[in-house]
Amino acid sequence: MKINKKNILIIIIAVIFAISCVMLLLYYKSKQSNEEENTELNEISESVIQDYLNTKKNSVMYKNEASLEELKKEYKIIGEDDLYCIETESDGRKVINVKPNINYKVAFCGMMNGEMPELKEIDKIYETKAPTQNGIWINLADRKKIVNYLNNNSKLKAKYEVDQEGYLKITKTEDLSSADEVIRKIIEGNKQYILSISSKCYMVDVVTGEIVENRYNDLEEYQTYEYFEDENKMIIFISENLENKMTNDEIFDSLIELAKQL
Asked: Which end of the chain is more exposed for a tag (fewer CB within 10 A), N or C?
């Protein structure tokens, strides 16, 4: 049976029309679906914003005049009041943290004792044993190891030693490398830095107000150090790298990067 050209043209037009209708239907369905999704997302966003605004309005943590007692109750913190200070986040929220000088003393006393200190003794230990000068002071047990590493480091051209009081000194100052210059700047600076090689340290738990052991390498095996600050003082605990997850040079490089930010 012959199919004339007119019939073929009609069939082609019909097919094109059918395809166009299907595509148009799919487009409108997709558009409708996207509009519904956007509406739903907008409703969720508005709900989240409203919840946030309600929280700011009703929560103690967003009150400018919030007292320590009120905030402790809000955050369910049970430690003694004299351990804490109130700080303000960027969104205006009030938070409770352990006073930096208390955590610093706890960390120092734990380092000096080699065991968990008691809160009642930290002031006395700190007053009698803490270094008083600026520069880099190294814990007695770690002086030989740190100086030996520095004097055999290919990235350093200076020569180092520890004086009788425990402070790191540069004995050869000619032709210093960039890393030497970073260390020299800290040694001659107006802040105090204490170094100790230890994968654990001690700190005050915010919630309970009790001293706890912080084994930071158990939580993050590639963490090269942990530190505590109090005004112009910093105590840095350098990872012992017991599992050999890092090289000594990687640890040293991370400390130099930290020093550059100080």
From this structure: N
